[in-house]
Write a structure and sequence with these properties.
81% helix; 9 helices; elongated
């Protein structure tokens, strides 16, 4: 704690950089969540597709393809969760090479860390970011497991005694759980993006600020302005007109 306080009290530039970095991350997270309820974006459009998927799932008895898709989504979260642990292990190894790393960065004539303590503190911050990503991805895996249970317990199309209203309500709940799992996966990926922006801090505070802004712009474009989003949204509109 003493090292942490000395690091920030001795250099207001570091405080401003950290606040700017967190402001970009948390600010964009709030903006994306708020706007997903007000206008179309990747999150809201994909939720509509999941609702359509679960509604059609209840109308067929053969659900092998559905369970295969669910397993594939779960594997994606598991891959990033295990990758987070590997990265954390590598970051702990980087503690032993602080002096060498500082000398290498200094050769590029940029603002290298002033001391090994500063290097180690930034490594700790990266460990925290990837630890957050790990817990987020594992929670996504668990939610996909819950969704798999819901799919397994869903009433069959040929099953009698279940009304259409009950089927639609069940499909809505399955889609909601699946979307919650996908949102957690999205949060974990966002942590990876901002971890890359944080790495700019090893070169200098302004590199971190610029890279944080670049990450925000990339995320915004992909979630609200990308061709993929426009294509998915157009397909949703076509489907609604067809029905």
């Amino acid at each position: 704690m003493q090292m942490l306080s000395d690091f920030f009290l001795s250099n207001t530039e570091n405080v401003l950089t950290l606040l700017f970095f967190l402001g970009c991350w948390w600010g964009y997270a709030w903006y994306a969540q708020y706007n997903s309820r007000r206008k179309a974006c990747l999150v809201s459009v994909l939720h509509q597709y999941r609702m359509a998927w679960m509604s059609r799932l209840l109308k067929r008895d053969n659900r092998i393809a559905d369970t295969s898709v669910m397993a594939n989504l779960e594997r994606s979260s598991l891959f990033f969760a295990s990758s987070s642990l590997i990265i954390i292990a590598g970051l702990f190894t980087a503690f032993n090479y602080s002096e060498i790393a500082i000398d290498v960065i200094s050769e590029f004539y940029v603002r290298a860390p002033n001391s090994s303590h500063e290097w180690e503190l930034k490594i700790v911050m990266l460990v925290v970011i990837f630890a957050y990503a790990f817990f987020t991805f594992t929670w996504s895996v668990r939610q996909y497991n819950f969704c798999s249970v819901l799919v397994g317990s869903a009433p069959l199309a040929s099953e009698r005694g279940t009304s259409e209203e009950e089927r639609e309500s069940y499909a809505l709940h399955m889609a909601k759980v699946c979307s919650l799992a996908a949102n957690q996966f999205n949060y974990g990926l966002r942590a990876y993006y901002f971890a890359m922006a944080f790495c700019g801090w090893f070169i200098g505070p302004y590199f971190c600020m610029v890279s944080s802004l670049c990450v925000v712009l990339v995320l915004y474009r992909r979630e609200f302005r990308s061709k993929t989003f426009k294509t998915l949204n157009r397909g949703l509109v076509i489907k609604e007109h067809a029905s």
